[in-house]
Design a protein that fits this description.
Layout (H helix, E strand, L loop, with lengths): L3 E7 L2 H8 L6 E5 L2 E8 L16 E2 L7 H10 L4 E6 L9 H20 L5 E6 L6 H10 L6 E6 L14 H9 L4 E3 L20 H21 L2 H4 L5 E3 H4 L2 H13 L2 H5 L9 H7 L1 E4 L5 H11 L4 E2 L18 H14 L3 H15 L4
Parallel strand pairs: 1-5, 5-6, 6-7, 7-8, 8-9, 9-10, 10-11
Antiparallel strand pairs: 2-3, 3-4
Helix pairs in contact: 4-5, 9-12, 12-13, 13-14
Bound molecules: uracil (URA) and zinc ion.
Length: about 350
């Protein structure tokens, strides 16, 4: 039995240098009240002057870029292989004319990291989504030449208009043709106004626990409503955080579609693939939901053979500091054990077997 972590991020050294050179989100910098601690500021609004210093981004250190730290973390937590991915916000903020070259560089760098890992690491590539669709397609086509790449990671903004944008069709077609799975991951959250006037008192809880999964759920539902999977029946998407809230809300989404006069008038109900079919044929879910209740919903929606263990390292480190076991990881291990209810084959599949099969790992 092998344990494979498919949700684990890195900011490669060249990307860290880029973040250090910037003055607007996303960036890395120190603040006058804590000159010895670099902070990683990536989420929208995270550097608002009203933000308390403990919520101003997060402390950033070698866990984010040093691969020996990643391997040590894997060894500490019994992880055999990891499929690493650039963390948010990927290349979304790169100037359009520089994005193609930036993607080639970072994907080559990540592939090289994997090549030097003695078989421990594979990767999801990043796409130059601020560039024109044809530049993105070209990078998708090139990924086949990178031995350790097993798909691409991307956020919910697409080419700037979301994932229901018809301009993405050539990219979806290229991903489908090249059998490159999309690892869909949130970044932008919800408008901060929904968190209310006391949001500052609650740290990162509302944007991370709720904003992230709802952003993902809305993005996937827009893909569904725009017929992406009716046009691209072989397009595979691995959805972060056990699908956001999709497994829980799928029934409500279907019901709202079935009762929508506008959709009926425009012929968008007849012949469409229901979300339940897509959940079982196109969607994979990570097991990063920290409790068996959410995990059971994911298993019921997509099937235990479509779930894959993840850690979200280096995010959610133990508050006790360096050297301690990661509560976030052990909570996910415990949830998988509980949801599998003694069915060893199910647990083994979620922990690693499914990733080895789906992502064609050696
Ligand atoms: N916070 C982030 O910004 N990204 C993650 O992947 C997890 C937490
Ligand atoms: Zn993540």
């Amino acid at each position: 039995m092998k344990v494979v972590d498919i949700h684990t991020h890195v900011y490669p050294p060249s990307y860290v240098s880029l973040l250090r050179s910037r003055q607007t989100v996303p960036y890395i910098r120190t603040f006058p009240d804590a000159p010895d601690s670099s902070r990683l500021i990536i989420l929208p609004g995270e550097d608002d002057p009203s933000t308390p210093s403990t919520s101003r981004g997060r402390p950033v250190g070698p866990d984010y870029w040093d691969i020996s730290k990643k391997i040590a973390f894997m060894d500490q937590h019994g992880i055999d292989k990891s499929v690493i991915s650039l963390a948010n916000p990927w290349l979304d903020f790169i100037a359009p004319e520089e994005a193609g070259e930036a993607a080639r560089k970072i994907n080559d760098e990540v592939n090289e990291i994997c090549a030097n890992s003695s078989g421990r690491l594979y990767a999801f590539a990043a796409l130059p989504l601020s560039a024109k669709a044809e530049v993105v397609v070209k990078e998708v086509e090139r990924l086949g030449s990178l031995k350790y790449i097993r798909g691409i990671i991307m956020g919910t903004s697409g080419l700037g208009q979301g994932l229901d944008d018809p301009a993405l069709d050539p990219i979806y077609a290229a991903l489908e043709k090249n059998r490159q799975l999309i690892f869909l991951h949130p970044h932008y959250g919800l408008p901060s106004s929904v968190y209310g006037p006391r949001a500052n008192e609650y740290g990162h809880v509302l944007p991370l626990a709720l904003g992230f999964p709802l952003e993902t759920t809305i993005a996937v539902t827009r893909m569904l409503l725009s017929g992406v999977w009716d046009r691209f029946k072989g397009l595979d998407v691995l959805i972060a955080h056990s699908g956001g809230t999709l497994p829980f809300l799928a029934g409500r989404i279907e019901s709202c579609i079935a009762h929508d006069v506008h959709l009926k008038k425009h012929g968008k109900i007849e012949g469409r693939r229901p979300v339940w079919d897509i959940l079982k044929k196109n969607i994979y879910l990570d097991a990063v939901i920290y409790n068996e209740v959410g995990l059971n919903a994911a298993i019921e929606a997509s099937g235990a053979d479509r779930l894959m263990f993840g850690t979200d390292h280096p995010f959610f480190p133990p508050l006790e500091g360096e050297g301690s076991e990661w509560l976030s990881v052990n909570t996910n291990y415990a949830a998988i054990k509980a949801a599998s209810g003694g069915k060893e084959a199910m647990a083994d599949g979620i922990l690693g077997g499914n990733a080895i099969r789906v992502l064609r790992l050696d």
